[in-house]
Amino acid sequence: MPFLGRTFRTRAVGGILRWVEERFGDGAVVLSSFQTQSLPLLHHVSRVVPDMPVLFIDTGFHFPETLQFRDRVAHLLRLNLQVVFVPRTDDCPAAPLLDGTTCCRTAKTRTAGLIFQRYDAVVSGVRRDQTVLRTTLPVLQRQRGGAFKVHPMLDWTADQVHRYIQRYNLPVHPLTHAGYRSIGCAPCTRPADPGMGDRSGRWTHSERTECGLHTEFQL
Ligand code: SF4
After folding, report:
1. Active site residue 185
2. Is 57's C-beta closer than 6 angstroms to any atom of ligand 1?
């Protein structure tokens, strides 16, 4: 896809990250949920753009295992981890309502909106094979305020992610062994159903497959 003078579909992850750093400098950050599947992107970041800040949105509802895994990975890969804490409001109570749309909007998308106001480019590890909505995402996506979302992993498959983690002997989120394949906030995450997609354990009480982070900032 030609954009800003570059063709991204054929570029390797490292090449895209290097271009982002050259193009946006201090205005570029990585946004990660620190799951097992985040490791290939974070590993590339550590090797290609090690100083680029890696933001983690702490909703206050994460599994303790996720926070421990985040800190372990950040230490191992020497990442420039920056935790963004979500302020508590009435929309985001101590225990989220079953349909957490409002909670997600407050905890994730509103916080992400502030991040997009502050930075020029936000890199994330979403892939086309994760949800139907993600199949049509471009590698480079301009947001309402003018900032860009960058998706270097878009064409990777779950199998490629798995093989990359094995090849580089990267750590695995401790809940993966308990059947959790896509891990978000604890109240809204269950082990994935056998034979179903990785995200089948997310928001099992509703039809939702996305929290809004990767769908609400398109032009
Ligand atoms: S995933 Fe659940 S707990 Fe987390 S922000 Fe969304 S509704 Fe709230």
Report:
1. no
2. no
